[in-house]
Write a structure and sequence with these properties.
alpha/beta, five-stranded parallel sheet, 48% helix, globular
Length: 328
């Protein structure tokens, strides 16, 4: 007889939005207070919500929009909807406007900008995946409160400064979870996902330490460990199953991180992957030859630091002698 440890795997998956958002009270309060003027038909702050993957950005914003701003907000994930035409069409449809599908992008933009009699929150999640950032110009000219969600704070560095200055974005940073915070999150999800006494606190702590502040990886590791234990016909999840799930989670994380890189980050990463170890200056020169509007030096260095922080790239040395290579 196959052992069944999982009651409901949904709470261990990425799309799940819990009723309680643990250890995010501060940013929830900050984001909510910034957007609340919309409820009184007043202008609200435009926001840039940023932070590493697995820090709760999407979960928090989806929870807030659904619970407090359901009738005054539009949520769009730019991973699936990337072009200006598709984004404007999606916004208009969600605002109950007629879209035939034959309109030009400029027609959609004019129609959207005429909606000046209502305050609306427009949230673009995965905003660093936008293929055409000119849609931000339309948003800046509208009566909307714009909320952008991204991993990288600096993805706006290559955008026309006239657009970003028009948005006046207030930045809200989501920090990595601590190991103790991840344990709390895992405990909460376990109560809904697994049978009682299937996993103990020691195993949850190991998973939390492995995840290094990334709730997505922690949940995926626990999910995989539970499924592995079921396949082995075990009654509990042991440390061995947790460790066995680490490699799969790390490979998944790298694949996920690569898929989330901005055009500039991916270009830099691909150059390093092709050429091996490179001096910072050589890397930057090679990058400038491949993109139409390269980042300036400060933004370039910030993007490289982000690649290092994510564990995708290794940095050696300092200053002009700094070297980079892809982390194997």
């Amino acid at each position: 007889m196959v052992s069944e440890l999982i009651i409901d795997e949904t709470p261990l998956t990425e799309p799940y939005v819990p009723e309680r958002l643990l250890h995010r009270e501060g940013v929830i309060k900050e984001v909510a207070s910034s957007l609340k003027p919309v409820m009184k038909n007043r202008s609200a702050d435009n926001l840039l919500i940023y932070g590493d993957s697995g820090t709760g950005k999407t979960t928090v914003i989806k929870h807030l929009l659904e619970s407090e701003f359901k009738d005054s907000s539009v949520y769009i994930n730019c991973w699936n909807v990337k072009t200006r035409h598709k984004i404007l069409s999606e916004i208009l449809l969600k605002l109950n406007q007629v879209v035939h599908g034959r309109e030009s992008t400029d027609e959609l933009a004019r129609k959207f900008e005429k909606l000046t009699n209502r305050r609306t929150i427009v949230c673009l999640d995965e905003a660093d995946q936008l293929k055409d950032t000119s849609v931000l110009y339309n948003l800046a000219r509208s009566n909307s409160a714009v909320t952008l969600v991204a991993n990288n704070e600096y993805f706006l560095a290559s955008i026309d400064p006239r657009i970003t200055s028009g948005l006046w974005l207030k930045r809200v940073r989501f920090k990595k979870y601590t190991a103790n915070e991840l344990v709390d999150i895992l405990k909460e999800r376990v109560t809904y996902a697994l049978k009682p006494n299937v996993v103990n606190n020691a195993v949850l702590r190991i998973i939390a330490l492995i995840a290094d502040g990334d709730a997505r990886i922690a949940l995926q590791t626990l999910h995989n460990a539970a499924k592995t234990s079921e396949r082995k016909n075990l009654d509990v999840i042991t440390i061995d199953e947790a460790k066995e799930s680490v490699k799969q989670a790390k490979l998944s994380k790298r694949s996920y991180q690569l898929s989330k890189l901005s055009v500039h980050e991916r270009t830099l990463y691909d150059i390093l992957e092709r050429n091996g170890k490179m001096k910072s200056g050589e890397l930057y020169n090679g990058y400038c030859k491949l993109v139409d509007y390269p980042l300036q030096d400060r933004a370039y260095r910030a993007n490289m630091e982000r690649l290092v922080e994510r564990g995708l790239v290794v940095a050696q040395g300092d200053g002009k002698g700094r070297m980079y290579l892809v982390n194997p």
